Amino acid sequence: MKNVVESVVSRARTPFVNQPFTDFSKEENRQAQMRALEQVKSELGRTYPLIIGGKKITNEATFASFNPSNPEQVIGYFSRATVQQANEAVQAAAQAFESWKRVPAEERAGYLFAAADLLSTRRFLMNAWMIYEVGKSWPEADGDTAEAIDFMEYYAREMMRLADDQPIVRIAEEDNKLVYIPLGVGAVIPPWNFPCAITAGMTSAAFVTGNTVVLKPASTAPAIAAQFVNILEEVGLPAGVVNFLTGSGSTIGDTLVENPQLRFIAFTGSRDVGLRINELAAKHQPGQRWLKRTILEMGGKDAVVVDETANLEAAASAIVTSAFGFQGQKCSAGSRAIIVDKVYDQVLQRVIEKTKQLSLGDVTQPSTHMGPVVDENAMKKITEYIEIGKGEGKLVTGGGHHGPGYFIEPTVIADVEPHARISQEEIFGPVLTVIKARDFDDALHIANDTEYGLTGSLYSNNPERIERAKEEYHVGNLYFNRKSTGALVGVHPFGGFNMSGTDSKAGGRDYLLLFTQAKAISTTK
Ligand code: NDP
Prior knowledge:
The chain has helices at residues 2-13, 27-43, 83-100, 105-121, 123-133, 138-163, 197-208, 222-234, 249-258, 271-282, 312-324, 341-356, 376-392, 421-424, 440-448, 463-472; strands at residues 46-48, 50-52, 55-57, 62-67, 70-79, 174-182, 185-189, 212-215, 242-244, 262-268, 293-297, 303-306, 336-340, 394-397, 401-402, 407-408, 411-414, 431-437, 455-459, 477-480, 516-524. By secondary structure, the protein is of the alpha/beta class.
């Protein structure tokens, strides 16, 4: 054990560096990804158990996850957890907490380093699971896996920093110290759109700080979460520290959140589910001894603003990348382009041309830019919004959808009013709303005029406007002359304002504190 601890301590002292993205222009990487796709294809259709207190339980009632590119292809079958099993999972986590909270920080961090190493060796395989289960393109899948590794590397180091002596004022007559202790049992509820990174990020932050967890993955991406849970098992994480509970959020979500033994909920997902969790968690339950903490990251209606001083070509490229990366299914997607009158026609024209160059189709091929949206419900909802959009603005490209998978063309709707529904509501698909602003002041006002506040980007070469936007553009992640997506762990701590959530700043120095409580200990000399 001494050797393990020493190696964790010395690794934690090495500076954190982001994982480089895989260069798929290299033949060896393309071959490796192709082989991984073949291997994962041969593993599709398996049945996965619940894991409660280390016990694997397969229920008779199961549900399947499907390949959105080819909905007849089953990715895997998963047990539909019952309400009773949800409570048992919390109980198992509560039991494991009694020993896990005493495990030294360096040992807990050691599990994260080991999991990061194992995931690195399985990078192409994890990419392949995402290509099949949620329709990511190669670079999008690879970015997701890279981010998951980054989260584990970063939080392991952060845990060591928090476990160190904390700077407090010293006085002569007492010995004082401040320590960060865990909260208890948490529910971790991730979305399907970053099914590896967000699942790994929220789960690892929760357990590296000494908490135990019930992980309930999104029902459209449970196989990806299962690969991550397998990795935790393989590196020897003790039973009960992370319990794996598959099933519909609408059936077992409330039970989990209301359980009086639960101390916190780490959720990333839609506004409406986030609000419900917030409300239920606030209600005191019989036997509950604490206020439940909620860490809630929700939706966005993010904007890319362009003024007349900007590099218009770069702005048009960023608008297209921000709007259509992973089919627009990112909380950070630039779903609104707000362009000042003077350059509106010019930028719009280039956006249309660049959008038409995007390839939509088979994501098992490296050159495909865009794949399907995640499921039939998403396709229905997005196509309804396109119909609404046709009445609220002018459809200038896209608008169609075709099967057998859930493919929706990258769609641009121009000349839309700032308060139109497609300017205000999160569509979460490949639909870009283009809004004309009178001038920069008007553009900034429009950008802020939604209930969300997650990411935002401004293309401008005017230093005064940039300074103003630093103060007035009210978003958690503000970017200048850069796309609105692609936050890097450690570099761009991530989280939003207003209805975008509790601004938890995942991948930043403040994040792990959300999973701890500080205890001040004073001893008279
Ligand atoms: P949902 O809110 O539909 O689902 C998120 C998770 O919540 C899933 O695991 C879901 O399970 C679960 N859930 C559903 N109902 C309940 C309930 N009543 N109680 C507890 N849990 C429940 O979001 P999506 O998965 O569709 O993800 C997309 C959303 O996530 C978008 O709004 C996007 O903007 C947001 N997001 C925000 C990010 C941020 O950092 N701010 C980052 C990434 C995404 P099940 O699948 O079984 O329904």
